[in-house]
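Sequence in, structure out. Go.
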Amino acid sequence: MISKILHVLWGKLTREEYKKFGILGIAIMLILGNYWMLRTTKNPLFDMLVGLKRWQPVAKAFSLIFMIFIVIGYSKLVDIFKKNRLIYVMCSLYSLAFIIISYLLAHSSIIIIPESSTLYPIFAWIPGKLLGWFAYILLESYGTLVVALFYSFVASVMTADLAKKGYGLMTFIIQFGTIGGSLFTATFVKKIGIPVLYLIGGFIIMIVPFVIRYYLHAFPEDIAYKNPPSPAKKSTGFFSGLKLLLTHSYILGIFVVATSYEIMATIVEYQMNYLATDMYTTEEFTVFTSYEALGINILALLFAFFGTSFFLRKLGLRFCLIAFPLAIAAIISFNFTAYIFGFSSYSIMWILLFASIAIKGTNYALNKPTSEILYIPTSKDIKFKAKGWIDMFGNRSTKSLGAGLSKVFSSSFTQLISYSTFISLGFIAFWLFVASFAGNRFNKLQKDKTIIE
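Output:
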């Protein structure tokens, strides 16, 4: 009976395939569970140390500049390290950074630079406390870089057919970590404080390399997964990923499919926070964002259990790629309609909360797995370097675009929700066109059994 249910949900996976996706699922569960545990503190912490309503759009835009340097380092590391060793290096760096933030938050006097200090003129121009900016941008980069790196690793050891069957299972496992991380923060943040959360986060991320080592020990054949051979290439460094992105229309299509939702998600989240900062204290705001995180991940869990693999197998990749932007169009139209009909600010804040949950939860459960599958008929350089540009720099650019639009119309909530709604619908129309193209091209590549190099 149980095996029949599993076959309906995730296809006919063998025992070895269940083990494979189970181990990978635990690794990404730890990565994303850790992220969501800390993510719920990101906006309240930034609001306390810097000021969210005025400076959050600026922080998102600044993270775009910061990601340029991250991509430079990442591209070099891809040339130096094997894919599994690169995960070990990045997890170690973020572990150290989280522990340092924990220490500085616990010893707040360290981060205060007195006016008599020779360093004061250097940092005096920065709004708020420097640690607030650093923690915000670091967590933004963690949610992009480490997740992108892991999925690049997965794409390099999967076939398209196996991915279609197993991504739903892996996504299902992920949600236990994301829900657990969000719930942990909501339950214990007032008892143990944000510094301890960052300390815990530093230790959790260091478990991931051990899980990956166990995976490669259990499946040693995946260390050298065999794509069709391609000629040896010289390392081209930082711009190699950008060149691959700009010279292949299919990869540009993946860019649009994978990142466009960030524009609408950033705008909706800013609208929600715009109202919430006027209604809650820092602690209450943290709990409120925890509700958002819980909702996002519970929805993703339900969708992963009942929908992701089913839709991919029964309705096809192209359907899934198109369904997501159509759903977002319906959501933001409903938000605007509620405002036009005179709902109170408190009611609209909660409507926006559910809108954010719907957009981000469906992205994690449906759009993320489908856009990752698009990388399978591509070369290693595209999987790692071009994908690195898309996931790190590309996501930052669309987030920055959404933040920039929010900042332009932030003088009043009326302007913010009115103008951003119609601009968002215009973006979605373009997104639908590109999603259809990418889905058709993927199907052709699979039919012809070719890859893009």
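Check: Residues 224-236 have pLDDT under 50 and may be disordered. The domain at 10-448 is CATH 1.20.1250.20 (Growth Hormone; Chain: A;).
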